[in-house]
Amino acid sequence: xxxxxxxxxxxxxxxxxxxxxxxxxxxxxxxxxxxxxxxxxxxxxxxxxxxxxxxxxxxxxxxxxxxxxxxxxxxxxxxxxxxxxxxxxxxxxxxxxxxxxxxxxxxxxxxxxxxxxxxxxxxxxxxxxxxxxxxxxxxxxxxxxxxxxxxxxxxxxxxxxxxxxxxxxxxxxxxxxxxxxxxxxxxxxxxxxxxxxxxxxxxxxxxxxxxxxxxxxxxxxxxxxxxxxxxxxxxxxxxxxxxxxxxxxxxxxxxxxxxxxxxxxxxxxxxxxxxxxxxxxxxxxxxxxxxxxxxxxxxxxxxxxxxxxxxxxxxxxxxxxxxxxxxxxxxxxxxxxxxxxxxxxxxxxxxxxxxxxxxxxxxxxxxxxxxxxxxxxxxxxxxxxxxxxxxxxxxxxxxxxxxxxxxxxxxxxxxxxxxxxxxxxxxxxxxxxxxxxxxxxxxxxxxxxxxxxxxxxxxxxxxxxx
Length: 466
Description:
Number of helices: 17
Strand content: 5-15%
């Protein structure tokens, strides 16, 4: 197989700018000529092996970052945006989208943000009858989506918060574990922790300095909520500094993101990076073994695996998603080339939707996306009890997966016929941007294809994709 050439001009320029070096100075440190550097930064030439080695030796750069990052995400997000009916037949070729993502990532992000604003405006106009007369009916970006995109483009890894959590977990080893350490940490600030039969999962009263935790929730959830409160109080300066860096557009987005960062700290404290990565590799990413060892839920373990993207110590690039029973994506992240639809649900052929039919069991699936990339996907239902008789039960399904080239590192790949092309089920991202011509589950036509309609012939679909 031919070696793939590496084009990463945007990242090369970004690094040079961060180091405040001129092209001439940067070229000298990399041991190349000025014209050669200029050509690499403009993606007219691939990055040479000499330059890759120089980046690692001279600047200590994790060279794997050159081949990963925003490019595939940007392409996927632009394709989905361009699948909007508003663009009609104006969809650029895939090659053009890849050039834009590689050479002008800031422009690509601006286009995606513009489309998001259009969608939000369109949806608000569609429900204008409800908004009439309301003072808060101003058009603005969705705070939830703004926060989701923040974590999405950070690779779901926040280095400063992750390392702070790891330091906390290391100190906790000498104080009886993270649960005791969390309670002690709060006690040092005169905060009393009480377990009570309350409907809320967690409730903190700043005036009385009392933290109430529900006695109805599972023990691992109690620990997680303790750590979350530690993050909000003990790590407040760190969280606020991270939020300042993110520059959210609204106070609502900032508030949601702060909870997200506190959740991140809690998960990273339960499953500290170095220890967790080693354990995951040793047990070949067995979620149940990891759940028992770290006192975390299956969902928490799966989500944590998707965050193992620390420069210089990266784990397997996983995708992670959670859907509700209607198929709506409620959590999503991908460190792989597989990117999820930003609007609507996921492909119905994906095994995550079948997980509701087999509660308590893991479903394995070999899948192939239209771009020819093959994945192994693991799905399972997740039920969250209300803690008392008659309380509503929330039901979700989660999926965790990676490219098939990592199969040997997964216990879930054992006994699967990964070398048999026919064993892979064809899946897509969403129907509007899926190019498959003969999908029996297609809900709407693909916008990049022409349709043939014959009123006298009816197959699986009332049209034929050409």
